[in-house]
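Hey everyone, long-time lurker, first post.

I ran two proteins through the pipeline my lab uses and got sequence/structure pairs for each. Pasting them in order. The first:
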Amino acid sequence: MNINEGLRDSTGSSQARMHAQTKQELVREILDAMAEARAGGMRQGFRNLMGRSVSMTHMHVLAKLRMAGALPMSRLAEALDVSVASATGIVSRMEERGLVERKRDDADRRVVMVGLADGGTAALEELEARGREFFGRVLEELTKDELVQLRNGFRAMHRASQRIAQQERERASVAAPGKGKPHE
């Protein structure tokens, strides 16, 4: 049974099966459902971008640059798991389409930095807008009770992610004792 069937089916046998699942099975099922939903939203956004010759590789580059900011060509190549020569070719095609721009590093003129151009930012914004539009339509199909359950689930996920972030900060402070404290 997938998560969608479990949410829509309110029969006793379905609920008994849902309660019989282990926590690991539920996590796996939810992750699968999230991946399917995310893929559906991305397909909607990609359709228009593909018509403008924006490939999946280009979207990967744009996403990396949005997250990390401008990167040296060598670091971008490493992030893409390609050679610097291949990354240079990818960036050249993207630059021709106005998606990225290259600049020399002010500190070391030998280093070529790759950053988002206005067209790349616009492509990412368009993809996000189409994804939001798609998910808006999906949410409109849910009942009010289902929306409340979904909202509560997302709130629980947010609280859990905050706890994980706090635990990671605490581990980092234990791993680097005395950091930020004056030496005696």
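...and the second, right after it:
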Amino acid sequence: MSQAKAVERKPRTLNQRVLLLALLVVAPLVAVLLLNLGRNPHLIGSPLVGRAAPDFTLQPLDGGAPVTLASLRGRPVVLNFWATWCMPCLEEHPTLVSAARSLGERVRFIGVIYEDSEEQVRGFLARRGSSYPSLLDPGSRTAIAFGIFGVPETYFIDAEGKIAAKHVGPLDPASLEARLRQAGLAP
């Protein structure tokens, strides 16, 4: 009879160990999820916010003189990294085009083409239009300098050249206005 009791207790101890192990794995995961429940996924921090934006010299898609960030100082800049193969980029394009038209000379909008072909971009812009320049980023050097890890990503740069805010994901009119305000670039 004592052997039977020993056999009965062994599975019970094993079940308690499995339960304890499961709790040790699941509890931290649940805690992380609960702590991040109210966070906006588009507000991903960047160590560049509050610092001078990395300078660049990029060629416009349509030719002409290269554009440098230094040449844009004195006016706020909305710097949008995008690609034609990116579905969220397609969603936000009308918002950016409309805002660039309505804000005119008060805020400078610039698109930086991320890992895309000139042919694809020209076709896209011919079909959908644009109201701001798109710049070629060969080798994605500018994207790397800004720490881009996916598109669309948009940086809001103040008139002195400091990064005031960053937005990850597609911009809709409300989120664009909110980021402009956050960056002190109220429309």
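Reply from user beta_strand_b:
Welcome! Quick read of the second one: The longest strand covers residues 77-82. Residues 2-35 form the longest helix (34 residues).
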